Amino acid sequence: MPQLSLPIDPPHVLADDRRGRITYTPRLVEAATTRAWWALLRAGVEWRAERRRMYDRDVDVPRLTAHFALGGAEAPPAAIAQAAERVRVATGVAFNSVGLNLYRDGRDSVAPHNDHLQELVPGFPIALLSLGATRRMAIRAKEPPRRLLQVDLEDGSLLLMDYETQLHYLHGVAKTTAAVGERMSLAFRVRPAAGGQPGRRSLYR
Asked: How far apart (Å, rounded) are the C-alpha atoms in residues 157 and 170?
């Protein structure tokens, strides 16, 4: 199975073909800023432990989550607004939703998945901004040629996946037995409007 070894020089195009475009920028945000955002969000966000139905039983979602609308009447925390603006400048996209994941240690993870297309506006990408410890994301093509990309998502990095990638790839962060610190991801999306509000949020963020 082919794999891609990634150079650390930003930005880097990981895929750009009929199955979609994926780019990775290792150091979009400087360390001093990511540390400040981390401290504000870790202590100030109301993190939720969720459960979901799987294999005929309810199981704990192996990470903590939060969600904020962007650009609405209710302003998100300042750190979220600043991060959203940094991502908007980098991508040219005015995202209207951000989902937060908190991976507390190597036991926290997200299973391979693609985003639910009904929760995305066609043509707009998904932007994943990482804060804290590095975790590896695997991005695997659904059909032959079964390309596998493995990306170490560093503090301050941005992974950008366009809409078409959700049709052709699965992405996930596996559990690890390695000693890893806490990681936070901010997943920016453009969701369809429903009564003036972003659409139903997914557990996969």
From this structure: 20
Rg value, the chain, Cα:
16
For helices 78-91 and 31-44, give the axis angle rounded to 10 degrees.
Answer: 140
pLDDT in tens, 28-64: 999 999 999 999 999 999 999 976 655 566 677 899 9
Domains along the chain with CATH numbers: 9-189 (2.60.120.590)
Query: Which pTM does this prediction carry?
Result: 0.87
CA distance 122 to 32: 35
Query: Both tokens of residue 32?
Result: 């001093």
DSSP state of 194: B
Distance of alpha carbon 57 from the chain centroid:
26
Task: Give 125's contacts (C-beta < 8 A, 6+ positions apart).
Answer: 91, 93, 160, 161, 162, 163
Distance CA 46, CA 65 (A): 9
Rounded distance, CA 115 to CA 153, Å?
A: 19
Per-residue pLDDT tens digits for 109-148: 999 999 999 999 999 999 999 999 999 999 999 999 889 9
